[in-house]
Amino acid sequence: MSFIHHSSMFDFQYRNTAPYETPYFHSHANYEIYLFHSGHVHYLIGDQIYLLQPGDLILMHGLTLHRPNIDTRYPYIRSIIHFDPRYVEAIHAAGDAAQELLRPFRALKYARLRLSEGQLDEAMQLLDRMSLMEGRGDFVGVQRQRLAFLELLYCIYDWCQEPLAERSAEGEPEIRVQEAIQVIEGCYQEEITLEDIASRLHMNKHYLSKVFKEVTGTTVFTYLYHRRINQAKIWFLTEPDWSVTEVAMRTGFKHLSHFSRLFKQMVGCSPDQYRKQLQASETG
Q1: β-bridge partners, 5
Q2: What is the model's pLDDT at position 71?
């Protein structure tokens, strides 16, 4: 059974099977919990592409551009909760606890969790209960649905302890590199220099270059080129009508030959070959 509830503060879609109606990248202010049940989906968030498996759970703060790329030959079933963080503060008895409960969404920004069988069973029991209580439409149903939702958030908080620990263990160099990556994320499509990135961070360019290599094992520009090539792969997947030249220009390359050379070096085939492989997989 599927169920959909809409409001500005809390939006619950349970085992939704409706055709997807937002075939473009989008963002929103509400936090999101997305549980994938079945279908064939590449989920794109920022510069990440996740090939989903049934039972995968995605959490996000909503502000990073995202969209699922759906193979319409397969039934697409998903459960989604959009919620305003103020809604959690309003229904939680302790405001401070509510803030901590939402830390995975703020600290991680987005994450894909591959749930174990036990974790998935627990998540499904809570979603089932939320749907059942929604159907009651009375005071008790509303309150029990809220309790099930809060319990789901506590489960997610528990399941995120390892990625949260990895994030909190970061020291000053890691933080500075993360800031540099955020700058690159905002301007990788533009013509940009090391001096530009360092200037935006109020850092010495030599220090930036040194610490970036120490933390990531690669140079700033190698990272930048990988980001551009990864974005090109995303656009080849989502915008099949765009030419190779258009994709190259949109990803910040001034010369097609430079783009093609780097693409083959990093992906193992030319842009044209990569696009043909995608088209073959879509039609096969």
Answers
A1: 12
A2: 86
